Amino acid sequence: MASWMLIIPATVLLLWSSQFRSPCFAWAQHRVGLELELHMPLSNVEGAAKMLAKRSDLYLAKRCDGDRRKVYRPDGGISPYKDGEDRVCTRYWVVQHDSSLDDIKNMTSLELSSRAKAFQDLEGDIDAVSDALCDLDARITKSCGFHVHMDMTELSKAKMKHVTLVNFARLWVRLEPLLLAVVPPSRRDNQYCKQVAPFLRGKDLWRLWYGHEYFMARDVKELLNPDGKYHTVNFPDEDRLYHTLEVRLHSGTVEAWKIKRWVKLCLQLLEVCKAPWDEEMRWLVRRGSMLHLLTLCVDEEVSAHIFRRAFHFIRTYPHVKLPDAVSWLERASQHGYPQSGKWQEFDCTGCGERFPSDIPLSEATALCWSCLHKPDGGVKLSSPEIIEKPTQGWPLNLCGCCGKIFPSKRPYLGRRLPTCRTCSGPGAISCS
Ligand SMILES: [Zn+2]
Ligand SMILES: [Zn+2]
């Protein structure tokens, strides 16, 4: 047998499996812990722990007195376990009663915490727990939340915690209105996850943007979490032994696809914050296009998820107004977003470059946006002197005419919004 015959199946298998697991990106190696709040149709926590361990094939710990734990095994047995120094549960998922949730008749309210692990090592657990919870008919109510804890201890050791926290605060303040649109209205006005951005006054914002990261890191908690931990994002408490940055915005869910994409979003945003920003990045976060910022920070799967969820909630709650900063989403939602999350791609018959399109085109006559608008050639939009940070996937734009979100080959950084193909191509109807 020729050697290439062996290589091909291995390559195919590798590509195939990478569709289902996050490859070794830096963000996927960051340690996270998840908290899921939910109700189960079982009479007590012990019963729930036993059933969940069996169905998910995972070990589940339940707190007893002090540092003692009971570990429920997949084989149905129970082992004693003493927590000792390991107060962060790296070994087991933990299940406990949650008294903060609504009381529902014949249901037990639970908080299920994952073991703290690198995201890429936690994905299998998330699938298993989600399947088990769906099988066991777990329920979600408006009082349930889903929290993501991102570990800060490694960054602290590397002396990068202050930069990361302050940058994350800056990024969150800018993106919070968009992220609010991605969750149901019950999370947007909620005493357990209060918004952060509206708290900030001019002087505080000035400090956040221009203050030195080293000094700001001490104040960021006070600035963004004036009401303690019940905010969309909860900055670490310096007094606590374990430092995590907690995102509390998401509504309760037991569905693996929602859980994983939200965790990816949090980690990809965090990844951008792990180094000091240059002037270009600072400007972009503060004043640049939200769409451009998003495609710089998160990959295509995550940005597609953000828009599809936002459009879903706009359709489901047509009378609920969005924050002013993202009111453009309402118009954009009328045009939708590709179901697959992927844009169609074509080879330009003018310049030969690959480009994305929001509408179907004929392969034989496909022209990229630049060639379409400058058919006489000289299509280089960006000059070599301009350094453009590579986006993750095709850059996104908002059509200045019809309000649709559409992709482009290169980011448009001009002041005027570009127009989509439908509004500016041959035979376009002017939106005026
Ligand atoms: Zn072209
Ligand atoms: Zn348009």
Automatic annotation (TrEMBL):
Signal peptide: 1-26
Alphabetic keyword roster: Signal
Highest taxon in the source lineage: Eukaryota
Protein name per its UniProtKB record: Amidoligase enzyme
Naturally occurring in which organism (per UniProt): Symbiodinium necroappetens
